[in-house]
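[job 0412] stage=complex_fold ligand=2-oxoglutaric acid status=START
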Amino acid sequence: MSTTATLNLGSSIPVPSVKELVAQTLDAVPQRYLWDVDRDYPTAPAFSGDSSLQVPVLDMAKLVDPQYQELELQKLHDACKNWGIFQLIGHGVSDESIKNMHIKTRNFFDLTPEEKKQYAQKPGSLEGYGQAFVISQDQKLEWCDMIFLKAIPKNTRKLEFWPHNFRDALDTYSNDMRKSAASIIGFIAMGLGLDAKTFSKAFEGGNYDVRMNCYPPCPEPERVIGISSHADISAITLLTDCGHIPGLQVLKDGQWVFIEPITDAIVVNIGIIMEVVSNGIYKAPYHRAAVNRQKDRFSIVTFCYPEKNV
Ligand SMILES: O=C(O)CCC(=O)C(=O)O
Ligand SMILES: [Fe+2]
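[job 0412] stage=complex_fold status=DONE, emitting structure tokens
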């Protein structure tokens, strides 16, 4: 293998699967996964009973109800301005679609290494099973296996990367996320004094990429990182957590705050496109994923983009 790394953000150098690494009953975490602890490591949960450190919870049922709308819109505006992230309840996406996708995601990561490799990323493409943005042999690695797929519009799908076990589930799930994104973005636009219909329409016909993350348990969780600190380049991102294992953290006023999973909620965060569209009023927050000692954690992340010609 060549020792010269070329900078190519369009593809990733293959690295070992973390799940396979864990299956080898590790005593110690390999050096490449140990991060500079002073720079970026998961702190203990920041929940201290201080309500200013709890990520806001918004209710879609209230946003659509004339009786509560004004108050809930103000809450939404404050959440986007002060946090850039919130949990959304009452969103109307069926339990069944979310649960089904969660089960299929777990089942996929439970396949044998050989079975998963059928869907592995190919040189020059980020789609498929593997890791994102590994561009140098010296780069620190994240404690995460993932599969990344373009889901909507349908003509962007590269079905050779779509595991057979979840094709139907992902088709339904991504359409549900598209509908949710179109409706939440309308309310986000209203909060900025922009035209809700124009925004909703742009997202009904938008682009949706889905990334499924698997964070295996780690013997030294405080020294590794599931996904390192970043802001998403999407307009908005919709995340569902499979199970009730906290892992997602957001940087708020210099502190990492855990997002405590709420049953059936969708975590919505502002991405860089929306930060730009809002003239910087809404912030794309830095966030990252911590891992734990006990259990696999899975998340399903939908990156939402408006129609290309908007
Ligand atoms: O899994 C998580 O909690 C965070 C995932 C994330 O930020 C991403 O995939 O961009
Ligand atoms: Fe992210």
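The chain has eight helices and twelve strands.
[job 0412] exit 0
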